[in-house]
Every structure is written in C-alpha cells, then in structure tokens.
Write a structure and sequence with these properties.
InterPro entries: Cms1, P-loop_NTPase. The chain is 47% helix and 8% strand. It is of the alpha/beta class and 202 residues long. The protein folds into 2 domains: 33 residues, no CATH class; 122 residues, P-loop containing nucleotide triphosphate hydrolases (Rossmann fold), CATH 3.40.50.300.
Length: 202
C-alpha cells in the first residue's frame, strides 16, 4: 500500500509540469488580435525615424522628416482600389497625357509581394484606362528586362515590391523625378497576417 501511495503523487507532479509549459506566441497570433485600421501619416513618419535613428545624426533625421502636407488621405477601407485612385488623383487624364518621359512612372504602387502586385494591377482596370502599367517585382522577371522596357517605352504606372523598386532606382533603371504619387499598400495582410511594415526586410 505504501508503494501505491507513493507512486500517485509522482504522477500528479508530472502532469502539473506538462500544464505549466506555455505556448510560444507567434507574430500571426498577435496580429490576428489587431483590427485592420487605415494607415495614418504618423505610422510612416515613426517607421522612418526608427529606421534612420541608428545611423543618422539628429539634424539629418530632422531633415528626413516628412510633413503631413506630403500625404493624401488614406483609403478608409470603404473604397475599391480604382475608386481610391480616382479620388486622390482626379486629374489623371491630364497627367497621363502629359507624361512622355522614359525610365519613369507617374504613379508608383509599392506592395509586399508579387502576387499582391498582380492583384492590384487587375483591380485598377476601371481607373487606368488605356495607360501602360509595368510590373516591378522579381518573380519570373529579370531586372535587365525591366530596365530595357523602361528605357524603350513610356509607362504611366509601376506596381512592385520594395526590393525590386530599390534595385531599379540604385541601378539607374528607374528615375523618380516625374513620379507624382507613391502609394503604399499599407493595410493588406499576407497569409501570416503581416502587413508590409511588419516584414523586417522591408
């Protein structure tokens, strides 16, 4: 009887140890709880100052700050992509007509993945009309091909990922002097529920 009595509390101890182990929180668990809300200028301003804080002086960071006047109203999540573009860019027909420069675009849309870029290109058909749209991402498209296309033709809208856009700008394949609008696909979440600014590489 004493042996039986001794073996029971041991079993209990094992079971309590098992329940004490906590589940490791994943980023998708945290993001799942945060409701989708429209991005505000402050989000990007904070992100920029955090990014440059490590390797820039206080004066340089002050110069890099974007004022609120640089921002147009964000999509309040009631608009489709086409209707949002129509609202922020009412003079699109005129801008499109006057754009004759090669190696540049009037509207640059930046999103987190190639698949999302294709999705946005499809959803802007009502807005773009007959203007030319260029895919600026790495999936199945070589950077040399994109540079050749930009050199030879006139494109009005560029839709792509931060990595490829950065590479094109650094290699002088894309000039941003005639870019009037830069749109960040801020609120969209991928399969892991990450927004563009939740991805460390971005």
């Amino acid at each position: 009887p004493t042996e039986c009595f001794l073996s029971q509390p041991e079993e209990k101890q094992e079971s309590t140890v098992k329940t004490k182990r906590r589940k490791k929180k994943k980023i998708s668990d945290i993001l799942e709880k945060s409701a989708p809300k429209p991005g505000v200028p402050e989000d990007l301003q904070n992100l920029l100052s955090q990014h440059f804080a490590e390797n820039r002086s206080v004066i340089e960071i002050e110069e890099l700050k974007l004022s609120d006047s640089c921002f147009l109203p964000a999509n309040d999540l009631t608009h489709s992509f086409s209707s949002y573009l129509k609202e922020i860019c009412p003079k699109w027909a005129k801008l499109r007509k006057n754009h004759k420069e090669k190696k540049s675009v009037v509207i640059l849309v930046i999103c987190s993945s190639a698949l999302r870029s294709l999705e946005l290109i499809k959803s802007m058909t009502a807005f773009k009309g007959d203007c030319r749209v260029l895919k600026l991402f790495a999936k199945h498209i070589k950077i040399k091909e994109q540079m050749n296309m930009l050199e030879k033709g006139v494109f009005h809208i560029g839709v792509g990922t931060p990595g490829r856009v950065k590479a094109l700008v650094e290699q002088d394949g894309l000039c941003l002097n005639s870019t009037k609008y830069m749109i960040l696909d801020w609120n969209w979440r991928d399969q892991k529920l990450r927004r563009m600014m939740d991805i460390p590489e971005v």
